[in-house]
Amino acid sequence: MLALTSIWTTVLLAAAVALGPLAIDMYLPALPMIGDDLSASAAQVQLTLSLYLIGFAIAQLLCGPLADRFGRKPIMIGGFVLFAIASIGCALAESIETLLAFRFLQALGGSAGPVLGRAAVRDIYNPREAARIMAILASIMALAPAIAPTLGGFMMVSLGWESLFLALGAYSLVMALVVAFGIPEPMKPEHRQSMAIGSLLRNYRAIGSDIRFIGYTLTNSLTFAGLFAFLSGSSFVLIEFFGVKPEHFGLFFACVVAGYIAGNLTAIRLGHRLVPDQILVRGLVVAVLGGVTMAMLAMEGVHSVWAIILPQMVFMVGVGMVLPQTMAGALASFPAMAGSASALFGFIQMVVAAFIGVLVGYFHNGTPVVMATIIALCAVSALASYLLLVRRYPAAEFQTA
Questions:
Q1: pLDDT tens digits, residue range 162-184?
Q2: What is the rounded CA–CA span in Å between residue 103 and residue 16?
Q3: Which of 130, 119, 134 is nearest to 79 (CA)?
Q4: Among 120, 12, 16, 114, which residue's Cα sits nearest to residue 56?
Q5: What CATH fold (topology level) applies to the domain 7-390?
Q6: What are the angstrom distances between the C-alpha of 152 and each of 19, 53, 155, 228?
Q7: Collapsing DSSP states into helix, strand and coil, what is residue 126?
Q8: What's the pTM?
Q9: Do residues 179 and 12 touch, judged by C-beta distance below 8 A?
Q10: Rounded distance between C-alpha atoms, residue 294 and residue 221, angstroms
């Protein structure tokens, strides 16, 4: 077993948390092919993303309290096993309805990694240290989605889209073993919570009524929704509108992930001399700049792949700066209920993102305009949430000097 504060523990937590993004990013290049093979429309195929997020969100509400009662490790291991079983079902699906059903089950298991990874960081570190560790964790974790679409594109072309889900299932089983034998239980015994319904409701009411939690969670959710708008629409825009080959889609996606990693590294560097809220507002301004630029170029009819990718890279620099600060800020006030706070945080984040994803699919008109406009609106709304809530009600240790 590794020490909880070891960098290798952070690496393994990042690998566990990465299962959530991998379940989305790896099969993005295959969305058009899945639609053709299963005789489904773009909106129906996009639902495999949004329904995954909905299942992910719902499962967290139970996953968090269970982890607060029984510990992080057993719930995470059980989630990985369920994810693997559902992944096999996805690979064997012969209709879009079957695929949607197994994607929902896949989400129920996949929720354990991210929600408990965040909770584990809060278990181990104080709020300000947690913001820095989450930025490090996000940088490591981003390596997986950086290569996942490229790998997925080549696997899809040579082995079919079904192979992507089989690979995801195998990864989840490996992570179950890693968590079981490599990471100590991070939760302190005295922080264990009751599973009584009354106690759960009181915990969620206390968390959900905290204005600091609301501010950081809403800012995070709107920023993440802008990212998810790109995930929902990018394969259709790049592959169908611009004619990018599926096996090359991941190369452009890697450019976007590079922006995210740059944002994470910037947050880590700034964390030595700025408090988290100062990093947060800088990231939001960068995200607005990228989103608005993309929307303006799309509305002006600048039809170039780089008119999408370069502004999205700028947007993702902002996202990489914003997400770790808002995650840590939302959980800062709840050291004894980190699992439940992380669960409610994740639930709100995923519901908002799923709603935005449905909008992208529903209003998609074959051009980049809808996707770009929604990304810009999400960025502007996130900045407004910061100004109206976070700036007035900062978390402890997060306020500006």
A1: 999 999 999 999 988 888 887 77
A2: 19
A3: 119
A4: 114
A5: Growth Hormone; Chain: A; (1.20.1250)
A6: 14, 20, 5, 18
A7: coil
A8: 0.73
A9: yes
A10: 20
